[in-house]
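Data follows
____________
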Amino acid sequence: MGQKKPEFTFIDLFAGIGGFHTAMHSVGGKCVFASEWDKNARITYEENYKTIEPDLFEKDINGNYKFFNSDINDVVLDDIPDFDVLCGGFPCQAFSIAGRRKGFEDTRGTLFFNIAKIVDYKIQKGQKPKILFLENVKGLKNHDHGRTLEVLLRVLREDLQYEVRTCVLNAKNFGVPQNRERLFFICWDNEQSSASDFKFPLGLDSNLKSIFEKENLDQAIATKVGDILEPDSTIPEKMTISDKMWIGHQLRKERNRANGKGFGYSLFDENRTYCSTISARYWKDGSEILIDQSAKNKNPRKLTPVEAGRLQGYKIVGNGWKYAEAANNQNNKNKLPTMKIVVSDKEAYHQFGNSVAVPVIRTLAKEIKRQLLEV
C-alpha cells in the first residue's frame, strides 16, 4: 500500500530538532522543506524524521540535500517547493531601520526577513501560502519599545496581505509541567480561507479538548513535575550537583535577593505542579530547574536529558518513568513518534532548551486545520 496522501504541506524554518514537525505531522501535514543551520540539531532532526519523511532528506547527484537546507541566508528560493503552511520559531532581533515604511525591506538583516522574502516570492509566483504559523518569546511584544512587533505586524498585514492574530500561551496549561510563555502568530490568507477570525486554544482539558476561555483554565490537565521523571535508581550520580556548585548557587541567590533581584536557582520537588522555563543554557549548571533530593541527604540534581525532553512534550522512553501512569499521559500516546537522543548531554540540553513545547504546537496545529484549512 502507498503512503497516505497528506492533508496539507508545510515547511519548517529554523527547524531546531523538529517540534513543529512533530506537531504538524501528527495532524496530517507533510513537511516538504526544512532549514536548520546548527550541525548538531541537524543530526537530531534527520535521525528522528528520516523514517517519517524520507523525501525531505533526498540528496542530489553531488550528495547535497535538496530539501533539508542549512543556512537560511543561502537558500535558493526556486528550490523551495510550494506549500500550504509556513512554520517558524524565528529569533527575536531589533530592526535597525524600523519605522521607515519600506515594506518588508525594513526587516533586512534579520531572520524574519527570510520568512517575508520566501512568502513574497511565492506570492509573486501565484502560490501564496495559506497559513503562516510563527512563534517567538513573550518579550517580543515589548522588544525595542514595541517597534519590532509593530514592523512585524505591518509587514504581515500590509505587505504580505494576511489576517493576523497573536496570543501569549503557557505550556503549563497544555499538559506539561513547565511555566513557559511564548508569543504565537497565526496568519491566514482571506482568499484561501473563509474564516473571519482565529480563536486561540488557551489550554487542554483532561479529555484533550481545547479550552478557549480564560475562566475555564482551572479545568486544564493536571500536571506535576514527577510526571517527567525517570526512576530514581537509573539517575546517574553525575546529575547531582557538586558541593561547590550548590554552595555557589545559594550564595548567588542570597546576593541577588539582597540586591532586589530574583536570579539564583529554583528548587522543585516531584509534587510541584510545574517548574521554571528550561533554557538553552541549562547544561551549564541547571540552576533554573533543580530537583530536590534533601530527603536522601543529597544535593539537588539536574534533570537528565530525557527529562528535559519530556518537559517540552517529546515522547522519550529513556529508562522508563518514575510513576507508571505517566507513561500513558497525552505526550506518550502512540500517535506521537518516539524521540531519540543522538547527541551529547550538553547538546541535548541545548536543543531541548531551544525547542518549542510540542503539546502547545500540536494543539495550535489542530485548531489551524479545523478553523482555517477546513472552512
User: Anything to note?
Assistant: The domain at 225-354 is CATH 3.90.120.10 (DNA Methylase; Chain A, domain 2). The chain is about 25% helix and 15% strand.
